[in-house]
Amino acid sequence: MQKLNTFFPILVLGCLLLTSCFKDEAPNTECDILEAWVPDDYRSYFSQPTDMRVEDVPSGEHQIVFTVRVLSVVSELPVEFRLTPGATIEPANGSLQDFSKGPVTYTVTSEDGQWKRQYQVELREMVHPSNTYDFEHFEVNEKPKFHVWYELLADSTHSYIWATGNLGFSIAKGDTIPDKYPSVADSLGYDGWCVKLITRNTGSWGKTFRKPIAAGNLFFGKFNSQYALTNTLKCTEMGIPFTKEPVKVTGYYKFKPGDVFTDKDFKEIPGRQDEPDIYSVLYVNHDAEGNSVVLHGDDVLSSPLIVRKARVKSLPPTDQWTPFEMVYEGTTPIDADLLSRRGYSLALVFSSSKTGDTFEGAVGSTLYIDKVKIDFQSEEEVKQ
Questions:
Q1: How far apart are CA 164 and CA 141, in angstroms?
Q2: What's the rounded Cα separation, in Å, for the pair 118 and 159?
Q3: In the chain, count of helices (H) and strands (E)?
Q4: The pTM is what?
């Protein structure tokens, strides 16, 4: 079973460098929020208990969002935090704050007092997910510098539902310009901008650790470097809550395979041609006890919580924009009430090398993606 084709293990040597307030030579200088939650007394404001907790806040993240049923009925609300050891936070941990006027800024200070970091904590009203993605909206991450995509909501808020493996690639080649990363924005799309995913050579570091390539990828979710030292596949947190049942995904692609297909020792495999991958799953995002569940690179296509699955069967090379389509399959009944309360998450994944998870592929393989659309079941069909 294929996993997300992301270059994870390159983080093992350098993931500590990604913590914005960590110095190699000094202990007790970290100033991160590791977890955030709203107390159970405020359960009525939320659709699911999982909406009340943000677990494993990624290193480098500066925004924490809680999704409420109706924003207008929420006035003051306390948020509690788990911080890195010795750190303090202002406003005070668990204090009542007014979120009705927008995000509240929290400042975390390291134990030694020398490092500070700010987080924007925000409440957002539950909205139905978008179903069209043109990839017109992106920005350059501050440090390291690579492209980050977002969706623009009706109120002009940036919604960061997309993630890539660019953060991992930065460990091998952190001084690379944004256009030389595996996942980049390209102006020559089907219509406007598009996503360009390229399988890159990771250089001498990658050869030393038998991770010679990094496949370009884009997926719903987050890339979390926290687990890089223990279980690299857990770095991918794939899927975002959806309130509608998907039927199919369509879009346009172009693909050119790289010239030489190699194994994880960077040895050529004669006669083998690289191919891209596009797939998606809908899964229950909590366990029987109500605990939050997210799928990762090791179970995104195999978890028993998956209720629908789709995968493009063939993506032959083409230098012209070519339509693709994949239909969701699965017979597990969908709980309409649970679906409406964000009890399911949807993972959608694009990769330039299908076997990039085993570090096999062809440097230079390039997949372009644009004009992606998800078709959902109508409300009448769901009720039936």
A1: 12
A2: 19
A3: 5, 30
A4: 0.79
Report the candidate in 252, 280, 254 with the shortest Cα–Cα distance to residue 370. 252
- Condensed to tens digits (0 to 9), the pLDDT of residues 192-212 reads 999 999 999 998 888 887 889
Cα–Cα nearest to 251, from 198, 308, 191, 302: 191
CA dihedral 220, 7, 15, 280 (to 10 degrees): 20
SS3 17: helix
Best CA proximity match to 276, nearest among 223, 363, 359, 355: 355
> CA nearest 6: which of 218, 195, 179?
218
CA-nearest of 274, 373, 258, 348 to 316 is 274
**What does the alpha-carbon distance between residue 67 and residue 128 come to, in Å, rounded to a whole number?**
12
Q: What contacts 238, CB < 8 A, 6 or more positions away?
A: 4, 219, 220, 221, 294, 295, 296, 297, 300, 347, 349
> Of 191, 190, 149, 197, which Cα lies nearest the Cα of 169?
197
| pLDDT tier at 231, thresholds 50, 70, 90 | low
Residue 130 DSSP code: P
Percentage above 70 pLDDT, the chain:
89
pLDDT for position 168: 84
Residue identified by tokens 């200070």 is 109
Cα 303-307-310 angle, rounded to 5 deg = 90
Backbone angles phi, psi at 262, to 5 degrees: -125, 160
- The CB density around residue 126, as the number of other CB atoms within 10 Å, is 18
- What is the bridge-based pairing of β-strands 104-109 and 116-125? antiparallel
Question: What string of DSSP letters covers 222-264?
Answer: EE-GGGTTT-GGGGEEE-EEESS-EEEEEEEEEEE--S-EE-T
Nearest CA among 295, 190, 188, 335 for reference residue 250? 190
